[in-house]
Amino acid sequence: MLEQLAGQLGLTTFSVALLGSILASLGTSLGALPVLCVRSVSQRAQDIMMSASAGIMLAATAFSLVLPGLDAAKAQLASPTWAAIYLAGSIALGALVIHLIHRHAPHEHLIKGKDSPAPSERLARVWLFVIAITLHNFPEGMAVGVGFGGEPGNGTALTLGILIQNIPEGLVVALALAAEGYARKRAVLIACATGFVEIVGGAVGAFAAANAAIALPAAMGIAAGAMLFVISHEIIPETHRNGFENDATYGLIAGFALILVFNAWIESGFVGAH
């Protein structure tokens, strides 16, 4: 879809990947806007929506990063086993990088509170929220950018998958900021701004996809590892803290199934186009 449009317009891989990350970032804004008129959303609903986001991220990671990354690694390495080891090492590296950033960047989770070095005590709580969401959004943008370096359809699937999962995230963030006493317009604006970090991540991923074909498997693995870390370390624990674990689990499964079907539809569309 986006790849086909890029071909018709003569866009470079970098340009279309950057466009994809911009589109994905708009999901946060779409989710935040209802806070201007919606007064509250139950904690159960928030946990289900955020878990669905985790399921979407998990499926997008598996189908649009890990599997294409493995294929790309096999094309460059003689042994499928070494290709798998290479990709696995890249995944571990991506997770480690995000882990180190989380250890040293002051931030605050929406539910469990502060998870940061002591100097963060001097920061306003709203900016700790913003930093936390920034840590989520950068690897998501990078994943979108990298996705356009793979098979046709991967970039489109990642763009729309991340866009969809950003919607509940934007809603939850804006609601949390409003609950902290911020005016609703300001809460929405701050939530929208956190989504734009994905454009920066998208530019990084797009550069890797467009200029370093030999590094594409590593870039996909690093993006996948970063996404997996966010899912396991951030989203799942936060959605299992309020007594709605079963609902959250089924939300994750629903999000995963949604992207499974969506990817199949995207793939059939590209097959039909050829």
Would you tell me the structural class of the helices and strands? mainly alpha
Number of strands: 2
Q: Taking all residues together, what is the mean pLDDT? A: 79
Largest sheet: 2 strands, antiparallel
Strand content: under 5%
The percent range for helix content is: over 70%
Radius of gyration: 18 Å
First-to-last CA distance? 13 Å
SSE sequence, one letter per element: HHHHEEHHHHHH
pLDDT < 50 runs, ≥5 residues: 110-123
Protein model, in words:
- This protein has helices at 2-9, 13-32, 43-76, 80-104, 125-147, 154-179, 184-195, 197-211, 216-239, 245-273; strands spanning 108-109, 113-114.
- It is mainly alpha-helical.
- α3 (43-76) packs antiparallel against α9.
- The chain is globular.
- Mean pLDDT is 79; it is low at 110-123.
- The two termini are 13 Å apart.
- Helices cover 79% and strands 1% of the residues.
- The protein has a two-stranded antiparallel ribbon.
- It is built from ten helices and two strands, in the order ααααββαααααα.
Structure characteristics:
274 residues; two-stranded antiparallel ribbon; mainly alpha
Write the layout of secondary structure elements.
Blueprint: H1 2-9, H2 13-32, H3 43-76, H4 80-104, E1 108-109, E2 113-114, H5 125-147, H6 154-179, H7 184-195, H8 197-211, H9 216-239, H10 245-273
Antiparallel strand pairs: 1-2
Helix pairs in contact: 2-5, 2-6, 2-7, 2-8, 3-4, 3-5, 3-6, 3-9, 3-10, 4-9, 5-6, 5-7, 5-8, 5-9, 6-7, 6-10
Give a summary of the structure in a few sentences.
This protein is mainly α and 274 residues long. Helices cover 79% and strands 1% of the residues.
